[in-house]
Design goal:
Isopropylmalate Dehydrogenase, binds 3-isopropylmalic acid, 14 helices, two-stranded antiparallel sheet, 18% strand, ten-stranded mixed sheet, binds magnesium ion, alpha/beta, single chain
Amino acid sequence: MNLNIAVLPGDGIGPEVTDQAVKVLKAIAMEYDHNFKFTYAPVGAIAIDKHGDPLPESTLDICKSHDAILFGAIGHPKYDNDPSAKIRPEQGLLKLRKECGLYANIRPVKAYDTLLDKSPLKQDIIKDTDISIYRELTGGIYFGKKQLSDDGNTASDLCEYTRHEIERITHLAFKAAKSRRNKVTLVDKANVLESSRLWRKVVGEVAKSYPDVELDFLFVDNAAMQMILNPKQFDVILTENMFGDIISDEASVIGGSIGLLASASVGDKHSMFEPIHGSFPQATGKGIANPVASILSAAMLLDHFELYNEANTIRTAVEKSLKLHITTPDLNTKYDNITTSKVGDFIEDYINNPEDSNLNFTNIHLGQSTII
Ligand code: IPM
Ligand code: MG
């Protein structure tokens, strides 16, 4: 298959983790005889520094004219600590989502057997957790009208949803549930918010077309609690933009590190794949950023183009790396100096020569006197 992929590494650890995902995609292209072409473009704080715009027109054009977008991370402390900044890196990501119509953000959450002890939650609570979060991504409070009064003392953000916006992601969530465990949980705040009541109504109507799928409802405050009390009860979680942002970070605790969570953002025309973690500025350039979320996002990219074997090959290689403790310090208690690119190298090698994995394991540790 020929795939033209726009690569937007962005800020902080974005470039170093994205490098590993590209490395792994190149290994897949070689093994399975595909032709993947990568075009790099700036986004985020780095694009503000260079072009005065977090999403330059040329970057948007590249994204729209390519088959898929591989995204790193955006954000910089100089903007986080300055609420009066008019131009912010995050605006680039939000505009990209909106302009490309990426209305459904899919975030899988899984407890890996080999990492059960890395989560602060009890092992028997998280073992076998397998959730797919469907977060609406181009509506709600993120995109509603924003206002600040002239005296600067009153501010508001409007949370608005249309039936159409709710319907299209609801269909995707129900279709996903059909190929999983046939359950959708709508997370909302229908006891307080009008927009949530519209979600309940519309989702209930759409559910009638999927009689095999069970639908239940949870208020978001309760859902936040259930997520850590009994995460196994969830199959597909469907929710609006901001609730999805919050509960997906919470859910990352189940896997043991936010550095493991991948995501796909899809619409009718375009698709983008990005780790859910942010730019982690303190770690930039230190080689400690976990590249797995970015690598698993590349696997979701392959799934999107129905290259299922290829995607599963990446997942097998990632699981092997986790089993052998070839992981960055956020997960590693056994070895202390396995870098971002070493993890990428191992996964790349495993894809190219799965039988030689033990050999690679030895190579990985050569020269690391502290760990042998
Ligand atoms: C995410 C991030 C973004 C969001 C930020 C960076 C704007 O937290 O993708 O979850 O809030 O959607
Ligand atoms: Mg977030």
